[in-house]
Design brief:
Layout: E1 2-7, H1 13-22, E2 31-34, H2 38-46, E3 50-51, H3 55-60, E4 62-67, H4 74-81, E5 90-93, H5 100-107, E6 112-117, E7 127-134, H6 139-150, E8 153-157, H7 173-191, H8 195-215, H9 220-227, H10 233-243, H11 246-264
Parallel strand pairs: 1-2, 1-4, 2-3, 4-5, 5-6, 7-8
Antiparallel strand pairs: 6-7
Helix pairs in contact: 1-6, 7-8
The chain binds NADPH dihydro-nicotinamide-adenine-dinucleotide phosphate and (2S)-3,4-dihydro-2H-pyrrole-2-carboxylic acid.
Pathway: Amino-acid biosynthesis; L-proline biosynthesis; L-proline from L-glutamate 5-semialdehyde: step 1/1
EC number: 1.5.1.2
Domain Pyrroline-5-carboxylate reductase catalytic N-terminal: 4-97
């Protein structure tokens, strides 16, 4: 019996397994994998994980089952695996919008579930994952899931009712931040900066600002004030951004992200 089985090894599945192995949350000989693209599994097999020939083989031979397929693939996958589930199985689902109710309707009322929303920076050890324990999964089982993600960054327990809303905060937000950075970088290149220099300056400022927000003990208002010299450049920039409806653009993005999660879970 393997401790961790994984079905679906794509953009996020592979880095989750990589991180869990290198962070020693689970040992490679305790991991069995099944994905549609065998070449993506190869680096994981080289370090000692096992490959299954089917979804059923994974389910039949693991305790924790990480589902990292797209939400749209679950309607086909869940009925396939249901006959092979045992009461001790713990399903760890990272599928955006897929609630515990959806999973229990498909797999059975007593299914042990952990919902998790990770993000891709976990591939560099800077992930932030939000997790929720669903009864009857035990605290020890939840702790295992927390470790799987926590070794690749940080892991936070959140209420299950907020799993869709958290996607805008961590799951999808890296892409929002990349897009904002792209806008800054494109403008910087028009000013004459080479791309690499601009990226170092912009991203370095983002990292510095993030540290200030998390560790300086100063409120967001006071941090903003400290940058805004009276009559200076920052207040001019912020005023123009506010006049161009920055708040509305970002809030609309968050709302569309959350709305899509609810649609995917129907
Ligand atoms: N990408 C991200 O940043 C994040 C993604 N998520 C969630 O993670 C999940 C995966 O997303 P992502 O990695 O981006 O998607 P990908 O499409 O990159 O990966 C999913 C993989 O699962 C494969 N797959 C589908 N059905 C099966 C099956 N029955 N057996 C084995 N493999 C299967 C797909 O193969 P095929 O190519 O044939 O479809 C694909 O390779 C989604 O539910 C998403 O909501 C959560 C947080 C962040
Ligand atoms: O875009 C998506 O649907 C997934 C979920 C969060 C990040 N990527």
């Amino acid at each position: 019996m393997y401790e961790l089985g994984v079905i679906g090894l794509g953009h996020i599945g592979v880095p989750i397994v990589n991180g869990a192995l290198s962070g020693k949350a689970v040992s490679a000989d305790q991991v069995i994998l099944y994905g549609h693209h065998p070449e993506r599994l190869e680096p994981l097999l080289l370090v000692g994980a096992s490959a299954a020939k089917s979804e059923i083989e994974v389910v039949s031979s693991c305790h924790y089952l990480l589902l990292s397929v797209k939400p749209q693939s679950l309607s086909e996958l869940l009925p396939k695996i249901k006959p092979f589930l045992r009461p001790d199985h713990v399903i760890i689902s990272i599928a955006a919008g897929i609630s515990a109710r959806y999973l229990k309707n498909a797999l059975g009322e007593d299914t042990k579930i952990v919902l998790a929303m990770p993000n891709t920076p976990l591939q560099l050890g800077f992930g932030t994952t939000a997790l929720s324990r669903i009864e009857p999964a035990t605290q020890d089982e939840f702790a295992f899931a927390m470790r799987i993600f926590g070794v690749s960054g940080t892991a936070e327990e959140i209420p299950a009712e907020l799993m869709n809303e958290v996607i805008a905060l961590n799951g999808s937000s890296p892409a929002f931040f990349y897009r904002i950075t792209q806008i800054f970088a494109d403008r910087a290149s028009q000013y004459g900066f080479d791309h690499e220099t601009a990226m170092r300056l912009i991203c370095g400022s983002m990292i510095g600002a993030a540290h200030m927000m998390l560790s300086s003990g100063t409120s967001l208002d006071d941090l903003i004030q400290a940058v805004c010299s009276k009559g200076g450049t920052t207040i001019a920039g912020l005023t123009a951004m506010n006049d161009a409806h920055l708040d509305q653009a970002l809030i609309a993005g968050m709302e569309a992200c959350t709305q899509r999660a609810y649609e995917l879970g129907k």
